[in-house]
């Protein structure tokens, strides 16, 4: 409906002003079924203009907004006329009030400590309805009940039960009408209460018995030991088990779970089926021999299979550090890898579940980053079920105004219009009902859904902590409050479902199982093969053999295919020139530049059937206009990826420009790479400097994941690095930080200086049977440097060189000094040496800084055994870059009595200067220092 038509219709219609809510309700019903509304309304709605297919000309969200605008205008007069009962409108407004704000009066807090704001709109009197109206019959609009009409008294009672019971449904912020209608149909039709058989109730009680039983057992067996007890939030166990069961019924084959400390041990034993004896051994300090450091028990992951009516579901609880919420994007990445392996396009086969703390989900920025990623092409996983174990206290802080600026800790989820179901943790049937609702919603709409499990923490932050010091009133209440199991067992006994003797038998049986130390999860099954085979990569060192050679004919063929564009694809002028040059390079008529060398690495891997995934903020084009793996048709705007058109049967290629995030995106790619070994997986920073926004991921996962948890990961990070006079935030990828983290052959740090080197480095990362992170200080100016070129023969015949010796024809016997360097500064040194016709100083490039190639350095230096003057030259300040890390390794490789000096910028608090003229002076000085030249004014 056009705006003018709508305005005229509203002006002449009796359905204006205060009647807008009534119209809204009836119009939505009319759209679903024209026969469902009273005849007089259908007549009016039928007058609306139609298009050929019979549907309204404008979508209803626009019509609804017009109703609201008109209703808000003070000049409008509320009209009940033409047979419209004014109180009928008020009844529909009351229904809407409960849908919007009923959750604010819900019975959510087991302790009864919440001071909820009184919502006047939930009182019928607010809508001019009083007790005299209770026996009057009204139309219920779109309320999802069988009867079209109800007496007001019964309706008000139904609304309270539905929206103000143990479940507070928060969903009216969702724009999509279908999703809202779906939730209403599921909640309102059953008055917000699930239906459970005696068998179901016994199963729920059994899960609560296990949750409570394990905590009590551990508390008695290991008093005072940290276990981050689940007590108070016991309902998490039946919740997650029901989710897995429900998901399995609907065809899910795998589920990846991420959670922090609270309740983790309980989850391991009572959901995933870890043997209690193994956990007891960990409490007792016993451990299996490992090559690494290991980690505390409440950081450890686990995998198993879980039997459901729809078949076994493979469960994986992700390993994670103490850093709050950071595991969530890691879980997303692992899920996406599993989806891609299964050919699962929408998440129907793999379910992510993340468990959050109430203070953490509101306080940690990575949560917002992860929500923002949830519906994107690169990072979508078909929706995540997010559970908040809301124990109403963050460590020692319980004042809401100190932990967040919103009413609920879950308000952050509204940024992606996720429905939020608040539920009282002392009502396990409500918890299980919400679990079913969440799984069904996620699998129907492929979107995130949040459950706020409102509970409490029976002990302090850990079992050695004293909570009364900071929360005296709360813990006085908790001390006298019965456990969730006790409350539910009494409830079942009262209704005659499970008597006290049966409940006690469940408890005794569980304790007997714990005493035996064997698996206590009835649904546990031995694992079948669900993931990629990591066996070929276990216990392999960096010197593992590999073949990286590709014939020049093959390179030429792939290069020609890449550079030959379909006639219908019109390229931008500069991009067209780049592809013309690449075609010339493929014919051997022009030296290969960086972009071509890199692209050929991807092409050869795809040709061999490997998966290549590249993400980052500008990876399609390349921040520095060099890659152009994704080109854009200038006529249609469509994307074309030459690497996807090599041949019919080739490896999978995924190239995505990422959301503007470092932390969550890098964590996602770590999760992806730790779940899938068969490919080249790359994250590229826009500028290497920005990677410090993801330092938690680097410190806690990439550098130490293998040591702590035995988790291999082959992720490659491309970090643009180089001093080009662009200031402190566009120069340094903080090379020194990565080198400081290097030990135990945990990762590789490389600074390639030629297209051939980047070609072999990227290929080596895949074809060599080693899966550890590769950190690359990638170039900026070298992307188009006239000396940073390679030939097809170098790509075909050479392998990656960890060290590159002198390339000019210097007489080794006349060399008096050897300068070591890495990266762009090599070309500055080379240019200055040639201009000054220096023939007695050799330049050696160390292309792999870690693991340090000591043997190869010694081989290169063999011809300089008479030299006593050596220097390390770098662009970075002395306290940054490689100097402090690498000097010891170089000294061990030098001839006896040789001295190693430093040539570079002096120590600095900032990575680089902000003035181009000062930068140029510093660069000239460090080159002169390395080459024993006088600095010219």
Automatic annotation (TrEMBL):
Gene3D superfamilies per UniProt: 3.40.50.12470, 3.40.50.970, Multifunctional 2-oxoglutarate metabolism enzyme, C-terminal domain (3.40.50.11610), TPP helical domain (1.10.287.1150)
Organism: Gallaecimonas xiamenensis 3-C-1
Keyword Oxidoreductase attributed: yes
BP GO terms, sorted: tricarboxylic acid cycle
Enzyme class: oxidoreductase
Keyword Oxidoreductase set for record: yes
Keywords, ordered alphabetically: Oxidoreductase, Thiamine pyrophosphate
Protein name as it appears in the record: 2-oxoglutarate dehydrogenase E1 component
EC assignment: 1.2.4.2
Function noted in UniProt: E1 component of the 2-oxoglutarate dehydrogenase (OGDH) complex which catalyzes the decarboxylation of 2-oxoglutarate, the first step in the conversion of 2-oxoglutarate to succinyl-CoA and CO(2).
Domain named Transketolase-like pyrimidine-binding: residues: 592-785
Pfam families assigned to the protein according to its UniProt record, in alphabetical order: 2-oxogl_dehyd_N, E1_dh, OxoGdeHyase_C, Transket_pyr
């Amino acid at each position: 409906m056009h705006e003018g038509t709508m305005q005229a219709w509203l002006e002449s219609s009796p359905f204006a002003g205060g009647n807008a809510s009534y119209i809204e309700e009836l119009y939505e019903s009319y759209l679903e079924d024209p026969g469902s509304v009273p005849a007089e309304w259908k007549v009016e709605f039928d007058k609306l203009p139609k298009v050929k297919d019979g549907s309204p000309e404008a979508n209803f969200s626009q019509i609804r907004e017009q109703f609201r605008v008109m209703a808000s205008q003070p000049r409008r007069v509320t009209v009940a006329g033409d047979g419209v009962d004014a109180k009928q409108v008020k009844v529909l407004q009351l229904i809407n009030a409960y849908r919007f704000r009923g959750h604010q009066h819900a019975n959510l807090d087991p302790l009864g400590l919440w001071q909820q704001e009184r919502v006047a709109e939930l009182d019928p009197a607010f809508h001019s309805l009083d007790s005299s109206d209770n026996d009057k019959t009204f139309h219920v609009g779109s309320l999802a009940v069988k009867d079209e009409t109800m007496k007001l008294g019964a309706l008000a009672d139904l609304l309270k039960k539905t929206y103000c019971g143990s479940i507070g449904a928060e969903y009216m912020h969702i724009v999509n009408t279908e999703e809202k209608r779906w939730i209403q149909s599921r909640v309102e039709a059953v008055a917000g209460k699930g239906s459970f058989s005696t068998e179901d109730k016994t199963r729920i009680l059994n899960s609560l018995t296990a949750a409570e039983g394990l905590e009590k057992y551990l508390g008695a067996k290991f008093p005072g030991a940290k276990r981050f007890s689940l007590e108070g939030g016991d309902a998490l166990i039946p919740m997650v088990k029901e989710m897995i069961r429900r998901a399995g019924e609907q065809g899910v084959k795998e589920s990846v779970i991420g959670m922090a400390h609270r309740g983790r041990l309980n989850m391991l034993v009572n959901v995933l089926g870890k043997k209690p004896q193994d956990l007891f051994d960990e409490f007792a300090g016993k451990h299996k021999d490992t090559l690494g450091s290991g980690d505390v028990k409440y950081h450890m992951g686990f995998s198993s299979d879980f039997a459901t009516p729809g078949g076994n579901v493979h469960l994986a609880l992700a390993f994670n550090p103490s850093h709050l919420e950071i595991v969530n994007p890691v879980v997303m990445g692992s899920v996406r890898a599993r989806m891609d392996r299964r050919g699962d396009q929408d998440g129907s086969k793999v379910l992510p579940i993340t468990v959050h703390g109430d203070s953490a989900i509101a306080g940690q920025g990575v949560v917002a980053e992860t929500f923002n990623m949830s519906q994107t092409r690169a990072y979508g996983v078909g929706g995540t079920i997010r559970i908040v174990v809301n124990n109403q206290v963050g460590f020692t802080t319980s004042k809401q105004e100190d932990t967040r600026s919103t009413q609920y800790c879950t308000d952050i989820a509204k940024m992606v219009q996720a429905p939020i179901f608040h539920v009282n943790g002392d009502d396990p049937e409500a918890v299980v009902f919400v679990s079913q609702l969440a799984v069904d919603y996620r699998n129907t709409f492929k979107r995130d859904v949040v459950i706020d499990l409102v509970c409490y923490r029976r002990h302090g932050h850990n079992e050695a902590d004293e909570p009364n010091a900071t929360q005296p009133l709360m813990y006085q209440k908790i001390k006298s409050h019965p456990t969730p199991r006790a409350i539910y067992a009494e409830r079942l006994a009262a209704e005659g479902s499970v008597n006290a003797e049966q409940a006690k038998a469940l408890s005794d049986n569980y304790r007997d199982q714990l005493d035996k130390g064997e698996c206590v999860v009835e649904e546990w099954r031995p694992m079948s093969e669900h993931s990629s085979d990591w066996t070929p990569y276990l216990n392999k060192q960096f010197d593992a053999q590999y073949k990286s050679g590709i014939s020049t004919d093959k390179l030429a063929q792939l290069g020609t295919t890449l550079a030959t564009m379909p006639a219908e694809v019109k390229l931008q002028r500069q991009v067209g020139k780049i592809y013309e040059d690449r075609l010339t390079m493929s014919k051997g008529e022009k030296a290969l530049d960086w972009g071509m060398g890199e692209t050929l690495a991807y092409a050869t891997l795809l040709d061999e059937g490997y998966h290549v995934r590249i993400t980052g903020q500008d990876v399609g084009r390349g921040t520095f206009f060099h890659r152009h793996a994704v080109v854009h048709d200038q006529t249609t705007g469509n994307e074309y990826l030459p690497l996807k058109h090599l041949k019919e049967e080739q490896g999978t290629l995924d190239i995505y420009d990422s959301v503007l995030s470092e932390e969550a995106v890098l964590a996602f790619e770590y999760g992806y790479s730790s779940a899938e070994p068969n490919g080249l997986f790359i994250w590229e920073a826009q500028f290497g400097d920005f990677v410090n926004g993801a330092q938690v991921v680097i410190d806690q996962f990439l550098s130490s994941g293998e040591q702590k948890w035995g988790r291999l990961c082959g992720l490659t990070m491309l970090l643009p690095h180089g001093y080009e006079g662009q200031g402190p935030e566009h120069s340094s990828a903080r090379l020194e930080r990565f080198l400081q983290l290097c030990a135990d052959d945990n990762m590789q740090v490389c600074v390639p200086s030629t297209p051939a080197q980047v070609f072999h480095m990227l290929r080596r990362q895949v074809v060599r049977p080693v899966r550890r992170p590769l950190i690359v200080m990638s170039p900026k100016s070298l992307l188009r440097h006239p000396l940073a070129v390679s030939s097809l023969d170098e790509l075909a015949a050479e392998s990656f060189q960890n060290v590159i010796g002198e390339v000019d024809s210097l007489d080794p016997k006349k060399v008096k000094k050897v300068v070591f360097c890495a990266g762009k500064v090599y070309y500055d040194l080379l240019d200055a040496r040639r201009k000054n016709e220096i023939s007695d100083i050799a330049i050696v490039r160390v292309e792999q800084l870690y693991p340090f190639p000591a043997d190869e350095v010694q081989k290169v230096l063999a011809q300089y055994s008479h030299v006593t003057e050596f220097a390390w030259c770098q662009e970075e300040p002395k306290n940054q870059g490689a100097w402090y890390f690498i000097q010891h390794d170089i000294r061990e490789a030098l001839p006896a009595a040789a001295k190693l000096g430093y040539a570079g910028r002096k120590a600095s608090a900032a990575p680089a200067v902000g003035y181009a003229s000062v930068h140029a002076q510093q660069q000239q000085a460090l080159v002169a220092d390395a080459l024993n030249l006088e600095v010219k004014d």
